[in-house]
Design brief:
With 92 residues, this protein is mainly alpha-helical. The protein contains 4 helices and no strands. The protein has a domain at 2-45. It starts with a helix and ends with a helix.
Length: 92
């Protein structure tokens, strides 16, 4: 629902600016994306089937690596913040 509310503000501005063609394109692309999003919901909840569970061998390693990186960055955020600050200055 938040995506819908967030999309309504630019849609109103497009209409108020008199860009009807852009508003039509916006509505058509929204309908197209809703079709794809709702198709996932239909497949997950409205179709019969047996659940198939598979486990990739590398998944535990990736999970552990990202968890350790998150913990390390929470204790030592300085280098990451400095890096992000230099990137922001470079952009502007």
């Amino acid at each position: 629902m938040l995506g819908k509310i967030g999309k309504s503000y630019p849609f109103r501005a497009i209409f108020a600016g008199g860009f009807v063609g852009l508003a039509v394109i916006d509505v058509l692309t929204s309908l197209l994306s809703a079709y794809y999003y709702l198709r996932v919901v239909v497949v997950m909840y409205m179709r019969q089937g047996e659940p198939e569970v598979t486990r990739e061998p590398w998944l535990g390693l990736v999970t552990a690596t990202t968890a350790l990186a998150t913990v390390a960055l929470s204790f030592f955020p300085g280098p990451l913040i400095e890096w992000a600050g230099r990137a922001a200055i470079w952009l502007f």
